[in-house]
Amino acid sequence: MQLVVWGARGSIPSAPDDPSIFGARTSCVEIRAGGRRLVFDAGSGIVEFGLSLLADPGREIDLFLSHAHYDHMMGLPYFAPLYHPDFAVRLHAGHMLDGTDCESLVTAYMSPPFHPVTPKVFRAAVDYRTFTPGDDLSPAPGLGVATHRLNHPNGAVAYRVSWNGRSIVYATDTEHEPGEPDLALRRFVAGADILVYDTTFTDAEMATFRGYGHSSVEEGVRICRDVGIARLVLFHHSHKRTDAQLLAIEAGAQRLFAGAVAARPGLSLVAGAPLPSQSRLREPASAATE
């Protein structure tokens, strides 16, 4: 069971010193399990991920949206498999607080005057699936995806992918209340092999950005320590952070929790395996190829 990062920034696809180690692409993470390639969020990182799929023999793709803010949706109109008739794409969304269904959400996003073409141009077989947070999804036999509502403006969803006794959790865009552990989230992620977690801020910054819907590096460490998670992937980096700042944040997190690593395009982790060497992690990466 493997995690591959295609985009790790938040808010906008920008980095102060791009091209950077951590890239400028926004949220997109792939999980490979049971011969399937699942993708989480459609930020700008999904563009290169989509191109990689064109050479892959697999033609069934499951795309799971955490929510519909622009940094998590901006790459969707440029996701190449959607324009190929030999692909089948199941698109899942369940964060909506107003009862909007998945197809209506995507149609509204890709509509004039905000976008020149609508989903009617898709040539793939697209299956829009709407769920309620708390539902258990099953994209393939033996492959389970549990869901959990997160604390974020307009709603967001965390996903826990389980296969063959291993599990990876994707939980970005959630805000914790300082000093008050989110016990429901801890129960949801407990015992996972890898947690991809929203670490936009530090504890010291949380008061300044209260209500923005994001969490901290230190809270990610506390969660992993409290509920027995082996690997913490720092995710949704601020577009204001330089490489030097993110490397310092990563080093600080590792002093608190040896299993921490900052997400960057090309990062590949196998559930239950050791972290890549630090020298390798510091090499700029353009895309995941493993």
UniProtKB/TrEMBL annotation:
UniProt xrefs under SUPFAM superfamilies: Metallo-hydrolase/oxidoreductase
Descriptive protein name: Phosphoribosyl 1,2-cyclic phosphodiesterase
Matches recorded under InterPro entries: Metallo-B-lactamas, RibonucZ/Hydroxyglut_hydro
Any GO molecular function: 3'-tRNA processing endoribonuclease activity
Residue span, Metallo-beta-lactamase domain: 36-237
PANTHER family to which the protein is assigned, alphabetical: ZINC PHOSPHODIESTERASE ELAC PROTEIN 1 (PTHR46018:SF2)
Organism: Aureimonas pseudogalii
